[in-house]
Write a structure and sequence with these properties.
The chain is α+β, with helices and mostly antiparallel strands. It has a three-stranded antiparallel β-sheet, covered by helices on one side. Helix 1 packs across helix 2. The longest helix is centred in the N-terminal third of the chain and has 15 residues. The protein is globular and about 60 Å long.
């Protein structure tokens, strides 16, 4: 038995594709601008977790119509392991895709071993 995850690899997209994606996400999935910007930030995002092959195919076809490629990963799961249902907000409308949980490592990306160093040399205090 296996589970299917659908990924959006933002690094592979052009600025024009990211703009198109943002507009289409807002229109098709009724996302706010803030939510859409989270997905078009140039990083990889799992947009559907543990879905069926049919759901994955539908998502891939929809995004392909927008000129956006998606990556589908099949994960083997042991027969005795059951996946816990995704937590939902009461009263929230159902959505056709989900994001990876916060802090979850993206399997295709190298693990960060140390925090990113940020230069603040250019900042200055105002009088």
């Amino acid at each position: 038995m296996y589970e299917v995850d659908v990924w959006l690899d933002g690094k592979a997209l052009t600025e024009a594709q990211l703009r198109t994606l943002k507009a289409n996400l807002q229109q098709s999935f009724k996302l706010s601008e803030t939510q859409a910007l989270l997905l078009v930030n140039g990083r990889s995002h799992r947009i559907k977790r543990s879905c069926t092959e049919k759901e994955a195919t539908q998502l891939v076809h929809q995004f392909e119509r927008w000129g956006i490629p998606l990556r589908v990963e099949h994960r083997d799961i042991p027969a005795n392991q059951q996946t816990a249902p995704e937590p939902t907000l009461k009263g929230a409308p159902p959505t056709s895709f989900t994001l990876a949980r916060a802090g979850e490592r993206i399997p295709t990306q190298p693990a960060m071993t140390e925090p990113v160093k940020v230069s603040t040399d250019h900042l200055q205090l105002l009088d």
